[in-house]
Structure prediction request, 346 residues.
Amino acid sequence: MQGEAKLEQRVVVTAEKLLSTRKSVTALDVLTGIGWLPDNVLKAWQQGRTPELATALPVSTEKLSFALGALQRWATAKNLESSAIEHVGATRDRAPLKAASGDLEPLFRTQWIMPGLSAAKRAQVDARQRKAPDLMVSVALKDWTCADCGGTGDLQFLENEKPHCLDCADLGHLVFLPAGDTALTRRAKKASRLSAVVTRFNRSRKRHDRQGILVEDSALRDAEEQCFADEDVRERRRGRDRERRDREDVEFTARFFAAITEMFPGCPPERARAIAEHAGLRGSGRVGRSAAGRELAERAVFLAVVASIRHLDTDYDDLLMAGVERQAARDRIHSTIETVLDRWRS
Prediction:
């Protein structure tokens, strides 16, 4: 019972934060916020590689059902407006996606919205929810053959677990815009009727890193002209944004530090501060910069602490350098990590 009460509180706190910032809440938002829906799992489902999302989540059906029930109870108590939504795939046919079986599916297909929004704000919320996920194209890391024409290329589009060249995927007329210029990317994508995100699998981090986008040539030219015309204005804005981010980073580190000391009161203050600063380093890809980390989800804080113990209080790094397989090395140091965690919990 205590575990259920704690889980319900996590759901409610996450939902409240989402509602205050986004003016709406969905099951996917909350599951991401509490750390149950990693980005790679979400993308695999959107790309059709996972038939049913719930089967890929790291929790039991019973626990998932309780969490979504807590979300529904919270929304009812808040008198939020509800509307039906549809999840579609990041595939050419935009096929509908199935999130769960039985009574859970309707909860995944509901969006709860803050009442009393202006017509313009409500339209913005609805438009954000209706936006289909980006089409994804990946950089080929090994030899491959198109499932349709037998050709090959540097980029491939996966559909139904089969690779397709850009021409067969009807993306061959698009041009590549490398990542790096946010304004140019945003404007080119907005002007392009068809676009796709290009990613490359990072073997060391076991994730897909964004490389750029594919857009129509005319859209890219228009975006370049717009960026050239207002470069001075955007440079001043970037300066203000850098100052704002610096302030946010200081505030975030303080909140992360507080969350660590609350969860592990026995953790030395200087160590807790070092963990917070390390986990929250902007652009690092670490757990603190994830969506769950920014929301200070309990699991994100826990993982940051465990990572620190693993590298500083055990011989884990020495085992890796000696050639021990990663999971085997983690199994060897598990008891040491648990001992430190138990000491810091008191």
